[in-house]
Structure formats: C-alpha cells, structure tokens
Design a protein that fits this description.
Phosphatase 2c, domain 1, six-stranded antiparallel β-sheet, 3 domains
Length: 504
C-alpha cells in the first residue's frame, strides 16, 4: 500500500537501506516501510503564518473582542473581515481602562515553542522582548487612541504576519473642555475669596495697628511734651544764668548780641563780669549743642563766676588757664589714651576792657577776635595813590575801614595734646569795634550752591555794616543770615557779639 505524507521528520530509528535511482530520486528503507524523498517538495516551515489577537477584556471581566473582525454590507448583513474596520474601533470608558489582550498563532508544529512580541502604539513605540506568554495586561491607561500590534515567531525563527487592533479610551469627565472651564472659574472664585479674606484681614490688622500707633503716638506725644517742658524749663534756667546786657549799658559800652540757639537750649553762651574799672566779656562755644551743650555752658558760666568774681582776676590768659583746669578736673579728663577719657570742652574768646585807661586785653582758645577801625590818613593816602596796604595775615579793608584778625591759641578749654599757657594781647583803643563769635555763623549752609558762609564772607559783611550803628548790626547780621539760609535748617548754635567803647 502506498501512502503519501509530507516529509517532516523520520522517526528516531536507524535507516536500513538508502538508494538513489537513475531518475535522481532517493529511497530510504526502514523495517517494513519505504520512504521516497521528493526534491520538488516545498517545506511548510518556511511559509508565513498570521498572528491572531484572540480576545480583549476590559475592567477585569467585560469581553469587547473575541478574535473575529467583521464588516457591515450594504444590505445590512455582517461579513467576516480580515482586518478591523474603522467603525468597529471601540470607545472604552476611562473607568474601564484596565485592559487584557490574549493572542495565539496558527502554527502547530511544536506550538509550545511559539514566542510573541508586541507593542502598544500610543503607549510605547518599542517592541517587547520575545516571550511565550499568550496575554498582556495594561492598567491605568491614559485617555487617547491606541493600536496593539502583535507578531509571533515559530520554532524555526520565522516571524508571522503582524496582527493589529485599535481602540480608544475616552476622556474622563474631569478632562473635558467644560471641566477645564469650570476649574478656571473655580480657581478664579477661590482667588477672589482669598483676596477678599486677605483684604478683610489686612483691614482688621490695619485698624488694630492704627489703634496701637495712635496709642503709642499719644504716649510719645505726652513724653515729648514732658521732655519739651523740661528742656524749656532748662532754657529758662540757662537764660537766667546769662548776664544782663544792662551791665554793658551801664559801662558806657556800645554793643549788640546776636544769640540764636539751634535747639531750645544752647551750647553757645556769653558771659559778662565787672571788677572795678574792668569789664570782662566772654563769647564761648561748648562741645555739642542742645542739652549736652547746655550742660557744658552752665558749667562754663559757673566756673567763670568762681574764677573772676570770687578770685577777682582780670588777666585773660590767667583766667583761661584757670578755666581749663576747672574743666579738666570736673569732667575727670585724662591725657592717657588708654583710658576712655572724654574730650569735651569749649572754644572761646575773652576780652577784658579797662574803661579807665581805654585799653583792652584779649586771649582766645581757638576763637579769633576781629577788630575794625577807620583807615588812618597815611593809609588813605596810600590807597589814593593806588598802593597796597601792608596788612597782617587775615586782615581785609575797604575804602573806609580795616578789619584785623587777632588769632587765638590753637588749643581748647579742656584736655588736649598741647597744654601751653594761653597768650594775651593788649591793645590801646583806637576807636575799635570788637567782634567776638562762635563758629555757627560762618559754618551755616546756604546760598545758591548750599555751601558754608565762610569766614571771608563774614569779614566782608562786617565791613559792609560799618555804616550801620553798632547796636543795629546784630539785626542786620540776622537778616543777612536768614537770606543766606533760605529753606535750609540751622546747623549749629550761633553767637556774635559786637563791642565798642563809647567816645568821650
């Protein structure tokens, strides 16, 4: 009996006879069977086969696809299709996005050796490793369009034709346009509510802070009033300690006193004393201004009373020397740089006028003295000839008067590196107008450029005022200073004194 059967593999037994006939066929003899090898036979293991997606399950138990594609004919009938039709692409709810694919391949020789590889387009582009698993699960897929592509490989390494199957996962309700619009509206509403709440809280906080500020302001105002009252009382005490101008008037001395404290109380002070025929005048500038300067000024006036009135000393250099000792001792000053020694003190100019001999003596601690007299005949003659006057340093003149600057010793009333005896200068009265001052006037800022008034302008102003009676020069100086300052604040205490012995 002859039976034809496709040759795949002989049984695992030995072959008894092999014969090649004249026509080129090969025969195999084995036991009671005879096999012929047909050279024209095509091997089936090289033929392509189709991978098949057999099922799609969603949500764990709902079957969407059972491995059969179909299409709808014009007469409404359904016909099996090799591929998925566009109208058959399922729309899967987002809440059922747990998906399981099952697959197979129609190759039946050692089918247990079949391997599969897949890729889910829309989820990942690369192929999965080859595996013998016949299913794959995907969980929590995002909404969108997906296509499963599957291929198989048999025991001979031949890959199948790929199978494809598409599906869509629908947007969840919270990912739709209207949902996004509602999110924006809700966010805007939340921001509005937050702003309202925050604004309300700020207003309440502002009300609370305003209440606290009002309370604190009232306290500060009360403290300021108390402090101002105390300082004004101190000012009255300081004014009471300042000497009366009647002493100058009784002494037949023409004068003016321009005294402008920067604050309520002043660090500048003037002092007047009389010993017999001698009239003693001091114009002083203490360290600091305001309350600290006022304390120093009261100390200075007290010390001068002690030195001059009780000791009856009229020599200006000796008085300044004694005053320096009083200040150093009272303030416990020391020249030892290792100690925290205070450098407070005062600068001053002092003049003693002998009303009988019409001579006056001057000593100064940093503060110079200006003397103004009329030009003498020989000086006028020189000027008329166009010649220059030979003047000491610091002196200036116009066509009627000359101003001489008598320089002070360059050391203060107080501790300093140089503590030499103070010098005294004696002058015979030649109709001099004597000017004593602190540095407040010349250091005041003003003018178009906001600069200091400076000493040279002060000297020119004094010469310009020589046509004004001495008693009115103080008011004229105050007006000039006010014009110079403009809107600027006063920077220091100001003291200017003018003296002239009346002519007989």
């Amino acid at each position: 009996m002859v039976q034809e059967k496709s040759f795949q593999r002989l049984e695992n037994t030995s072959v008894d006879v092999i014969y090649s006939d004249p026509e080129g066929d090969i025969w195999f003899g084995k036991s009671n069977r005879l096999y012929q090898f047909d050279k024209e036979f095509s091997r089936r293991d090289t033929m392509q086969f189709q991978a098949l997606i057999r099922a799609l399950t969603i949500g764990g138990d709902s079957v969407v696809f059972m491995g059969c594609n179909y299409r709808k004919e014009e007469d409404g009938s359904l016909r099996i299709s090799e591929s998925q039709q566009k109208e058959n692409i399922p729309q899967i709810s987002y809440k059922l996005n747990h998906i399981r694919f099952s697959w197979a391949a129609p190759f039946f020789e050692q089918e247990e050796e079949l391997e599969y590889s897949f890729r889910l387009l829309g989820f990942e582009d690369g192929w999965s490793p080859w595996s013998r698993l016949s299913f794959q699960e995907f969980t929590n897929l995002k909404y969108g369009s997906y296509t499963m592509v599957l291929k198989a490989r048999n025991v001979y390494g031949v890959e199948s034709l790929p199978a494809k199957w598409s599906f869509n996962i629908l947007r969840p309700w919270y990912a739709h346009f209207l949902a996004y619009v509602s999110y924006v509206l809700l966010a805007a509403l939340a921001v509005y509510i937050l702003i309202k709440l925050y604004t309300r809280r700020l207003k309440q906080e502002n009300i609370r802070l305003e209440s606290i500020i009002a309370e604190r302001t009232a306290e500060i105002r009360k403290q300021k009033e108390e402090l101002t009252d105390s300082i004004e009382y101190a000012s009255r005490i300081q004014q009471a300690l300042l000497p009366s101008e009647e002493m100058l008037a009784r002494s037949q001395v023409e004068h003016f006193i321009l005294f402008k404290p920067r604050d309520i109380v002043s660090g500048d002070f003037y002092w007047i004393g009389a010993i017999g025929d001698h009239l003693l005048v001091v114009a002083a500038d203490c360290t600091g201004h305001g309350v600290p300067g006022a304390f120093m000024s009261m100390l200075g006036m007290t010390f001068l009373d002690e030195i001059v009135i009780k000791s009856r000393i009229t020599d200006t250099s000796e008085i300044l020397g004694q005053l320096r000792k009083y200040v150093i001792t009272s303030l416990k000053q020391s020249d030892d740089s290792s100690l925290d020694s205070t450098k407070d003190g005062m600068d001053l100019a002092m003049v003693t006028i002998d009303l009988k001999s019409r001579e006056f003596q001057y000593s100064g601690a940093y503060n110079s003295l200006f003397l103004v007299r009329k030009l003498k005949r020989n000086e006028k003659a020189k000027l008329n000839k166009g010649l220059e006057l030979e003047l000491p340093r610091g002196a200036i003149h116009d066509d009627k008067h000359i101003l001489l600057q008598i320089r002070a010793d360059q050391m203060p009333i107080g501790i300093s590196e140089k503590e030499l005896p103070f010098k005294a200068s004696i002058f015979k009265d030649e109709g001099y107008s004597i000017y004593m001052f602190s540095d407040g006037y010349v250091d005041q800022f003003g003018g178009p450029a906001g600069k200091k008034f400076m000493s040279k302008n002060f000297k020119k102003l004094i010469l310009e005022l020589q046509s004004v009676p001495l008693k009115d020069q103080g008011s004229a100086m105050e007006t000039a200073l006010s014009d110079w300052m403009g809107d600027l604040d006063q920077v220091d205490d100001i003291l200017v004194m003018g003296l002239r012995i009346k002519q007989n």
